[in-house]
Amino acid sequence: MLNEEKILEALEYALPVTLFDVTDSTNLRLKEMCRSGDTRVQLLCADHQTAGRGRLGRSFLSPEKTGVYMSLLLPLPKDDLPLTIRAAVAVCRAVEEVTGKHLLIKWVNDLFLNRKKVCGILAEGVEDMAVLGIGLNVKMPRGGFPGVPVAGALEAEEDREALIGRISFHVLKTLEEEKGSILSFYRERMLLTGKEITFMHSGQEKNARVVGVDDKGGLVVQTAQGMEILRTGEVSIGSSQVSAFE
Length: 246
Fold this sequence. Notes:
The protein is of the alpha+beta class. The chain is 25% helix and 30% strand. The protein is built from 5 helices and 12 strands. The protein has helices spanning 4-11, 26-35, 83-99, 160-174, 179-189; strands spanning 17-20, 42-46, 67-75, 104-106, 110-113, 116-126, 129-137, 196-201, 204-213, 219-223, 226-230, 235-237. It has a 7-stranded mixed β-sheet with strand order 1-2-3-7-6-5-4, sandwiched between helices. The chain has a 5-stranded antiparallel β-sheet with strand order 11-10-9-8-12, with no helix packed on it. A hairpin with a 5-residue loop joins strand 9 and strand 10. Helix 1 (4-11) runs parallel beside helix 4 (160-174) and helix 3 packs across helix 5. The longest helix is centred in the middle third of the chain and has 17 residues, at 83-99. It is globular. Residues 239-246 have low confidence and may be disordered.
């Protein structure tokens, strides 16, 4: 079972914390609590999820005692920079601070280490608040991640409580930080800049070269038809460019 005292020690904020040994989804549980009237800024974590959720309706495998499965109930950002951009930066900072490992960001909010995805982020609105879910693979589970060849883990020795606490700390800090500072960090860690990608637009697959990230967190791409800015969606990179994930 996760230790609340250790989390709060690393967090440095007096934040309400709810811990589950097992739950279906930390995002779902926190949304229920918010709808029931508990709208405090708070943290909810589980040692194991039975129905972890990712972006675009995907599942997020959450085996016990190997990962960080956490959700924060937060106020909506005061500017136009998406919470997921802030969270990606916060996780990178926290992981480097705790473990020394240098993560890279695949737009919008997938985090990679050694060509493998180690973290996913999901933000959802509820009652004029935001629920921010973060799933971070700390250790490889026995048998790995079946059917998900891109999935990897930090393989860090540090306590998961330290990671939970520092991730929460850095997420809260980014809510107060100037977006220019956040974007500067995000752009430095972006692994797609200059790479050829494919993406879906109006039901059709399109090819493009990534130019960068604009001031609202959109992906700026050059297509055969001209410059476009992607605000949502999924992008993929060809196998010939796997060095982008190093």
